[in-house]
Write a structure and sequence with these properties.
Layout: H1 6-26, H2 33-38, H3 45-72, H4 83-92, H5 94-100, H6 107-113, H7 116-149, H8 153-201, H9 205-215, H10 234-250, H11 253-259, H12 265-296, H13 307-316, H14 321-356, H15 362-384, H16 393-417, H17 423-443, H18 448-469, H19 494-502, H20 523-541
Helix pairs in contact: 1-8, 1-14, 3-7, 3-8, 3-12, 3-13, 3-14, 4-10, 4-12, 4-20, 6-7, 7-8, 7-14, 7-15, 7-16, 7-17, 8-12, 8-14, 8-15, 9-12, 10-16, 10-18, 11-14, 12-20, 14-15, 16-17, 16-18, 17-18
């Protein structure tokens, strides 16, 4: 796999140069922390939606999902088939709160709702979990380049880290989103070629591909059997992956931050809806690519399923195109790394630096945020150097994420939905989520995607119980002077906000007809629900 060729190297170098130029170009207007962290809240909805998809995809999916399709066909469609429902939940719960309160770090909301201890604890957990996951998604594309070019993996990790750090330090969130837009199209080109090339070059073409897929039981419908060892059944996808994505997209700063850059509530919902419609189709294409490559490779066995896509790039694509698709692998990885670095810097600056130096002006905070980006980039790069030999990168990230996600989701659920929730209950939920998930990891054979659901249930139950036992009878303010940005405590719960909207004390819809308050579903939300049902029917019938 190491005869990469001069033409491919030129294409790859041009790609890196273009991303660096674009990232620094769009970041020239970053003269404040609001522009650096939130793009001055002027990013168009379609760019945000593509950025969400690019980050969700990542090199982990670009490399790993075709391998899934190669080994198990469409079985793992349930990994993202619940995406439309997840987006409906986010559009009616967490996102309106975070957007309306004008927070920069979503963990600021926890302090408004509960207190500083819960904010600090959750911020630390985010920095730890996202820092480790960033190392994994950096390791994936770096490994790909090493296998394709023959370079030492350590060298490719350093290359990946250096370029990601460079344009993120200078460009901020605007660089993250606009480079993600470009990178999403490169990713789509790569998966399209992985389908088209086998269809036109394999003996027997599409007919042979379909015949092999059917004979090898690759075209399968939904599996409704409930099994804790199988996270890719209907129930595993709906509950396990579903709770993972609610947490990842709704309570993880690296994802929710780009939604906060939108111009209005309407645009936040449009961006999420775009991802809700496209991501399941994108997963289908990734798995289909693996099915097509199964015929192209004659069913060849691979030591690691991640090698399927890499082998296709090196053995089936002509010079130049191979370089561009290799750039797609990097595009997938960099789209996750850049957003993570910016989010890590956002949390470190807003949740720690500003508290350490409360008198720091905006320019000092902007300078500190760039240093934070540099620090976390170096940390992730060094951590990635130690990840070799740990198996499939997609399986690896599916272990790291579920370990931390239940405590995050339970804390925010307690905050948003429970009037009697308090800081003692929040901290109890966080600690319980971590303990339960470590137990499931070390002492059971329960599939990792199930950890999200069971960890959340246990954590939320414990947090709610403690909140009830320690509740002091706080009442939400329901006057006409309610303001999202200054409200605190149980004022910031769905029950209270909806109550105020029904009483006509706060605005229910914006001038464009979209609900501003949480708990209300717009027409586009109903469209997502219909799309989910259509998916399920189609998967039952095949």
């Amino acid at each position: 796999m190491n005869n990469f060729g001069m033409v491919n190297w030129i294409v790859l170098i041009l790609y890196f140069g273009a991303m660096l130029f674009l990232g620094t170009r769009v970041g020239k207007s970053n003269n404040s922390t609001e522009s650096y962290f939130l793009g001055s809240r002027k990013i168009p909805w379609w760019a945000i939606g593509l950025s969400v998809m690019a980050t969700q995809c990542s090199a982990v999916s670009f490399i790993g999902m075709p391998g899934w399709g190669y080994t198990s066909g469409l079985k793992r469609l349930t990994y993202t088939f619940q995406f439309p429902l997840v987006m409906v939940i986010l559009m009616t719960t967490f996102v309106p709160f975070f957007y309306n309160t004008k927070v920069v770090s979503i963990y600021e909301y926890l302090e408004k709702r509960f207190g500083s201890k819960s904010r600090t604890l959750m911020s630390v957990i985010f920095l730890l979990s996202r820092g480790l996951q960033t190392a994994v998604v950096m390791f994936g594309p770096a490994l790909a380049l090493a296998m394709i070019t023959g370079l030492d993996p350590k060298i490719t990790i350093l290359i990946m880290g250096a370029f990601s750090i460079a344009y993120t330090v200078f460009g901020g969130i605007a660089a993250v989103i606009w480079t993600d837009v470009v990178q999403m199209f490169i990713i789509w080109l790569g998966v399209a070629l992985a389908i088209i090339v086998p269809v036109f070059t394999a003996d027997g073409g599409l007919g042979a591909i379909m015949g092999n897929a059917v004979s090898n039981n690759m075209i399968t419908g939904l599996d409704f059997r409930f099994s804790l060892s199988n996270p890719y059944s209907f129930w595993g996808g709906l509950l396990g992956s579903g709770f993972l994505y609610i947490t990842y997209l709704g309570t993880d700063q690296s994802q929710i931050q780009r939604v906060l850059t939108a111009k209005s509530i309407r645009e936040t919902k449009l961006s999420l809806s775009l991802a809700g419609f496209i991501v399941p189709i994108q997963t289908l294409l990734f798995l289909t690519a693996g099915i097509c490559l199964f015929t192209a490779f004659g069913g060849q066995a691979f030591e690691n399923s991640d090698y399927v896509m890499l082998t296709f790039i090196t053995q089936y694509l002509p010079a130049g195109i191979a370089g561009l698709v290799t750039a797609g692998v990097f595009a997938a990885g960099m789209s996750s790394v850049d957003s993570a670095l910016n989010a890590l810097a956002t949390v470190a600056t807003n949740d720690f630096y500003k508290k350490w130096k409360p008198d720091a002006n905006d320019q000092q905070c902007l300078k500190a945020s760039r240093y934070m980006t540099l620090f976390f980039g170096i940390f992730a790069t060094i951590a990635a150097l130690f990840l070799g030999g740990l198996g499939s990168i997609l399986d690896l990230i599916n272990v790291i994420g579920p370990l931390f996600y239940p405590c995050m989701l339970s804390a925010f659920t307690l905050a948003v939905f429970c009037k009697k929730g308090n800081e003692k209950g929040c901290i109890t939920a966080i600690v319980t989520g971590l303990v339960v998930d470590v137990f499931m990891w070390k002492c059971t054979s329960i599939g990792s995607l199930w950890w999200n659901f069971f960890g959340f249930v246990a954590a939320f139950a414990a947090g709610y119980l403690v909140s009830i036992l320690t509740y002091k009878g706080e009442e939400a303010v329901s006057g006409s002077d309610f303001n999202y940005e200054t409200a605190t405590g149980s004022e910031l719960t769905i029950k209270n906000v909806v109550k105020l909207a029904v009483a006509g004390k706060i605005q229910e819809k914006d001038e464009e007809g979209y609900y501003v308050v949480p708990g209300k579903l717009d027409k586009i939300g109903y469209g997502l629900i219909v799309f989910f049902v259509v998916q399920c029917v189609a998967l039952v019938l095949i």
